[in-house]
Amino acid sequence: MEATTYSNFRNKLKSYIDKATNDYEPITIIRKDNRNAVLISAEEYNNMKENQFILGNPNNLKWLEESKMQAENGDLAHHKLLEDEDE
């Protein structure tokens, strides 16, 4: 994770936004009062919020853990896909 001062961040705003959005590089913005901030892409932020929502629900977490154990144990099910009747 790259870190920069607030002044440098302000002067090179476009460059830092490009790093965050194109390279998925979080940027820590260091402030004098030690109230730092982090710049990340909207895509990365949305992924974090989605993971927080999914993993924050005990039922979802239990289902994911059970599914992972089944896959690791080779307990997989195969299903034939239905054909579209219009084709």
TrEMBL record:
Pfam families: PhdYeFM_antitox (PF02604). InterPro entries: Antitoxin_Phd/YefM, phD/YefM_antitoxin, YefM-like_sf. Antitoxin component of a type II toxin-antitoxin (TA) system. This is Antitoxin. SUPFAM superfamilies: YefM-like. Belongs to the phD/YefM antitoxin family.
